[in-house]
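Try this one yourself first.
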């Protein structure tokens, strides 16, 4: 994801806090959180008496539409994203200001759904491969190995290999986007010691990434440095995501923001998970530093 330059279509705004709705959702969902921050920033922001108050303005980042038509996500305006985030940000003593010159932080927000590489005709391609293999075997019987034509098998293997490369590229891109990359790389490096070439945790992480996921990414820049020096100094980033199949973005949005509320502006050693109720009001159960992808 390119974040070195802010999108031209982005809008700048402060956001008022809203009271939570009274209704309470019953369904719950696991949420993955990856939070990183510079050492200097965490030492400055997390004081002995708790997080130091800091003002911010929002900056609309990139919207990722995902794979399929999603009316709930497409119909969500950025102001709704900002309002939901503001509730969680307040928990860490971040508060909105009306003008950019008064803000300590510029919060660039990216949101949407991941793209997962899928092949809708995979079954038919497997049939083609089976047919090519059967034809080759028949030629071997009738003509001998030297005269049999293996081009059909070779062609289908080439297609399969290209698809595997595309799927892997898609998975690794999503891992980087959502903050799964360090955990996945760690497991891939340790997989050589496993009998089957992988680990249970790597398989679980891949399963998470092979499903479309809703996500919100908040990237906090030093606004004063940006104003005075025209430099985009990144101070902290929080990436929050949950699976989208079976969930509605209108319910996922407040749940994502609520799950991330303990981690805005903080540094986590690795990817963690929390379970939260879907909808605008609910609770969050944090599994300590339990890593996303552990067997649940």
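Now uncover the answer:
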């Amino acid at each position: 994801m390119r974040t070195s330059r802010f999108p031209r279509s982005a809008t700048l705004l402060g956001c008022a806090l809203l009271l939570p709705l009274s209704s309470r959702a019953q369904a719950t969902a696991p949420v993955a959180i990856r939070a990183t921050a510079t050492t200097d920033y965490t030492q400055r922001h997390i004081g002995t008496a708790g997080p130091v108050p800091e003002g911010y303005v929002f900056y609309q980042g990139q919207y990722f539409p995902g794979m399929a038509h999603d009316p709930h996500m497409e119909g969500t305006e950025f102001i709704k994203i900002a309002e939901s985030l503001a509730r969680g940000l307040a928990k860490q003593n971040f508060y909105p200001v009306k003008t950019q010159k008064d803000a300590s932080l510029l919060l660039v927000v990216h949101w949407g759904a991941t793209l997962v590489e899928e092949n809708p005709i995979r079954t038919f391609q497997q049939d083609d491969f089976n047919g090519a293999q059967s034809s080759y075997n028949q030629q071997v019987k009738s003509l001998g190995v030297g005269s049999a034509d293996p081009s059909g098998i070779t062609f289908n293997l080439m297609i399969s290999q290209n698809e595997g490369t595309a799927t892997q590229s898609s998975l690794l891109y999503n891992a980087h986007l959502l903050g799964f990359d360090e955990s996945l790389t760690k497991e891939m490096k340790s997989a050589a010691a496993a009998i089957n070439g992988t680990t249970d945790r790597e398989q679980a992480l891949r399963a998470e990434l092979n499903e479309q996921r809703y996500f919100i990414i908040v990237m906090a820049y030093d606004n004063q440095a940006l104003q005075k020096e025209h430099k985009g100094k990144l101070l902290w980033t929080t990436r929050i995501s949950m699976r989208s199949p079976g969930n509605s973005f209108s319910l996922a949005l407040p749940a994502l923001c609520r799950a991330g509320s303990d981690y805005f502006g903080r540094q986590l050693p690795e990817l963690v998970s929390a379970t939260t109720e879907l909808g605008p009001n609910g609770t969050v159960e944090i599994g300590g530093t339990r890593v996303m992808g552990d067997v649940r």
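Discussion: Confidence is low (pLDDT under 50) at residues 1-25, 119-125, 159-166, 286-296. The two ends are 30 Å apart (CA to CA).
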